[in-house]
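Objective 1b. Sequence-to-structure analysis of Sulfatase.
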Amino acid sequence: MITESPENVLFVVMDTVRKDRLTPYGYDRPTTPNLSAFAEEATVFEQAVAPAPWTLPVHASLFTGMYPSRHGADQENPYLEGATTLAETLSTAGYDTACYSSNAWITPYTHLTDGFDDQDNFFEVMPGEFLSGPLARAWKTMNDNEALRTVADKLVSLGNTAHEYFAGGGSADSKTPAVIDRTKSFIRDADRSFAFINLMDAHLPYHPPEEFAEEFAPGVDSTEVCQNSKEYNSGARDIDDDEWEDIRGLYDAEIAHIDDQLGRLFDWLKAEGRWDDTMVVVCADHGELHGEHDLYGHEFCLYDPLVNVPLMVKHPALDADRRTDQVELLDLYHTVLDTLDVEGGTPASPGEDAVGLDRTRSLVSDSYRAFDGLADAERDPGQRGDGEYAFVEYSRPVVELNQLEEKAADAGITLPNDSRFYSRMRAARRTDAKYVRIDRIDDEAYRLDEDAGETENVAGGDDPLIESTDRMLSEFESAVGGAWTDALDDDVSDDAVDEMDDDAQERLRDLGYLE
């Protein structure tokens, strides 16, 4: 533990924000002046790696200190259970905890908010009683019934899908100021606090406030560009260069809106005298693709624009500098425990899995990434080799597959079963190389130091860095139960909907899932 440590933590996740669209990371458009000012006080990490390319498993890892294959939260099992969360541990230790978000995956419904003393999801299309009432309890029962698993997958995605179809310019952006206001109110009334916020503006669809749209996407009508990634990925819709430019402009405008609101929060913390005694973490859970590798969104791959995410941390033990060594978002769990002097590791309920503080994973510890000194019994699956490797896991996204198949079918397109759309993937990454194991198509490997755009697949060659990265991935896979070599069933249909009770079917009908 460091000798001088803040008593408060503000943890900000900018959902779906690419590193290369932020001014502190060299972007030539002034999207983030407030984050640029923040970067002058913080450590800016160039090589931070997310444990997955989408929200649910990443946040479950942030809240448990576990890789996705251990905590088990993904779209085929879309809730966190059997694991003690960071919020539960901190609340038990006497910290005030709060979680504010407009992301449908971060709700009582998925149990990601378990342990937070206060939480709000800021949904305008999903009432809170739906997320935490009788349907939430029924949802767990459905997940325990294999025949109804696809129904549960649909239920948990209602908020994000409703956001996609119903969010307009005003409603889409009205949530972030409310999140900031609620966070200020919580911090004002708290003693020792852990505040976690997720800001959704940069997630599709992009309908930025007018002032930011005028600066970064002048003349672009957000209702006229493609806002449904599944239409493009399925082949049902093409996007030309001009439209991509418009999409990226809208995306930049959304990021600028996030930056503006973070500046408001940071200025308030300083005015209230809370800034110096607060560790501030700003990161993205994953990025986004805008046509690279012929993909749109953040599904179906593990390319760097998705998993090499922005991360900036302000802490008295960290220099205001840039770091090029590789770190993992998983390490932030231990960094928070270390900062607040909480050992953790005690299950909140009997039989739960609880991860205790490991200072070899704390960014503020002198022993960070000193994995070589650990006995095998002390290692987690990712503590391989000399600490230069990060690991990413991606289980098939069944909710997105349903939408992808529907778009393809409407356009008369048949998606090949042996394709990335149906694949599970795992990757080992170092700063100069990456190896991706894929269960339905050929593996991919890239020399990131020579091919940052990941355009030349060098898997199967004789490059020693690629070979060592492949070996480390095999070691990781062995530690988590073996490689994914058994391709999953192709069927992602929703036949089980017929087995739902009338009330559940009516709720789906109200939200546009059933005719």
